[in-house]
Amino acid sequence: MAATRPFAGFEWAIAWRYLRARRKDGGISVIAWYALIGVMLGVGTLIVVQAVMYGFREEFTDRILGANAHVTVYSALYEDANGNRSRAITDYDDLTARVAAVPGVTRAAPIIRGQVMASGNERNAGVEVYGERPEDMQTLPLIANPETAEGDLSRFPEGIAVGQGVARELGLRVGDFITLISPNGVKTAFGTAPRINDYEVVYIFSVGRYDIDRTRVYLPFDEAQSYFDREGTADEIEVLVQSPQEVDQYYLPIIEAAGGQNLVWTWKDASGAFLSALDVERRVMFIILSLVVLIAAMNIISGLVMLVKNKGRDIGILRTMGLSQGSILRIFFICGSMIGVIGTFLGVILGCLFAYYIQDIQALVEWISGGQVWDPEIRFLTEIPARLRWQDVSAAMLMALGLSFVITIFPARAAARMNPVEALRYE
């Protein structure tokens, strides 16, 4: 007799008949539905969590790279002509030109940085001032092309640009005046008088990252030099590179161009540890949520064990008709694996749709609950980010299918090893 072809049509027909049979007929339809829904929800949850965590990392990185320097060049500590310790860069134009000539550098600009108190409409807030040349402001990606903006960036030489969070905190609109108060002012016989200047708000930007929108303002470079009493110097040279994710490859060329008296600091030095922690957390969450899928897949075992018990007589008859142990094993393997495959497929669809429409779902939940689901003050980003990657979706799908197949083998083997004589003894 020729051997039965593996996964022949009759094996699929018998498996499908067993799956859709009602409980009173010895089927496991209710338990199969529970197992299928469990796998579906587990896979969907895993995909959504991975998409949100990866999206948070990427959005956070994009905000860092879009509004901050990829590489910062600053001076080593030295004593100036008056014997004071300083990090001021006096040859900033020459240094900027040398750094800009490094292959892969797309932008190099001198800046002035300082922290002051801002006042407007009888409100106060601490802000960080960045002094930028007007032409350099046009080349800052998330400032020149922010999520939202008010005013005209071309008027930047006439006033000041402020983050949306600063404007909201101080109740400012375009055309209003903001007062900057620095404690490091003019020294007099009665002590140091604070420096107080008023500037017209000509541009309000929002980059979508709370800690930038809430604290940052931009002054024209010359005005910042005058305000902070740093004429003829710059605090830093901010550099943008072509491939910021591979910023380490630019480190040596930039430091060689900068010279021995200057130091280099990359964005990974500032935020790399935080991003690494996010990567570790994402991997750990994948492992934890895989256990949820495993628990859901365990329902397949319970269902198949009951199915094997209920179909003992059928197994005995099929064996006496000539079916091999392999055929019996494949019939019950198909029963369990179909639950896992269908549940995984539906879970992938559910997870991808949830991740794609997560902003609308967030708005709906906030509308229903009347509360705030995502607090930008804690998470820095203004909305829940989600980015689907085929690697994450494939990993979740393969993991769920693998668990479903492995778990199904054990009760299927038990059915295949059932002695037909014992199965029919009391029939």
Helix/strand order, N-terminal first: HHEEEHEEHHEEHEEHEHEHEHHHHHHH
The N- and C-terminal alpha carbons lie at a distance of 28 Å
- Fraction of helical residues: 40-55%
**Largest sheet: number of strands, sense, barrel closure:** 6 strands, mixed, barrel
What shape does the CA trace take? elongated
What is the number of independent domains?
Answer: 2
List unreliable stretches of 5+ residues: none
Strand content: 15-25%
Tally of DSSP helical segments: 16
Question: Strand sequence of the main sheet, in spatial order?
Answer: 4-5-10-7-9-8
* SSE class: alpha+beta
- Global mean pLDDT: 81
Rg, rounded, reads 33 Å
- Number of strand elements: 12
Short description:
This is Lipoprotein-releasing ABC transporter permease subunit. With 427 residues, this protein is of the alpha+beta class.
What does this entry look like structurally?
With about 425 residues, the protein is an alpha+beta fold. The chain folds into two domains: about 10-60 and about 275-425, no CATH class; about 75-260, no CATH class. Helix content is about 55%, strand content about 20%. It contains 16 helices and twelve strands. The strands form two sheets. It has a six-stranded mixed β-barrel. A two-stranded antiparallel ribbon has the order 2-3. Helix 2 packs antiparallel against helix 10, helix 2 packs across helix 12 (about 325-355) and helix 10 runs parallel beside helix 15. The longest helix is centred in the last third of the chain and has 44 residues, at about 265-310. The protein is elongated. The protein starts with 8 loop residues before the first helix and ends with a helix. It holds the Pfam family FtsX. It is found in: Cell membrane.
